[in-house]
Amino acid sequence: MNSQFAEFQPDVEPLGTVTDHVNEFINAVQSSTLIEGLTREETGVLGEYLACFGVPRHSTVLREGDGGDFLAILITGSAVITKRHGDVEKMVATLRPGDMVGEMSMIDGQTRFASCVTTLPSDFAVLTHDKFKALLADHPALGNKLLLALLRTATVRLRHATQTMLPNLTDVGFV
């Protein structure tokens, strides 16, 4: 259950696996696309690969520019995603239970694109890159469902980002 997640804050409390908290996990993510199409049994199997951590208020879960090998799913509490722009920290999004953060770095191995800071005491389910690879090897159908959910999340975020920046783009002038 070792993960870089627990190394960020000294007050992070390991809570076991999601299997130990499956009802709370299902309640948190039932409205998200993450487990869309998963049976309760598949969600239980997925839970065996996810470690749970309790995180105090105002804790940095992800730090922009740091390396990272995990994604985190907010189960309880609240957090914000921030991004540096020059010398200013801008709030990009607010996380609510069921939301996921850190998936880009877990997948592509690049540094963190943004930071995530808790605004309330929060619990997170954490999937490391190694556990993700193990899930794909041990349960290929379930791993593929999770891959599709990650892809859906990425496309939704990309569409939203494009719509947000569209008013600020330059007209091409020839259309």
Automatic annotation (TrEMBL):
PROSITE patterns found in the cross-reference section = CNMP_BINDING_3
Q: Which CDD domains match?
A: CAP_ED (cd00038)
This protein's superkingdom? Bacteria
Q: Which Gene3D superfamilies match?
A: Jelly Rolls (2.60.120.10)
Indicate the segments forming the Cyclic nucleotide-binding domain, all copies.
Answer: 34-153
> What protein does this entry describe?
Cyclic nucleotide-binding domain-containing protein
Q: Output the lineage of the source organism.
A: Bacteria, Pseudomonadati, Pseudomonadota, Betaproteobacteria, Burkholderiales
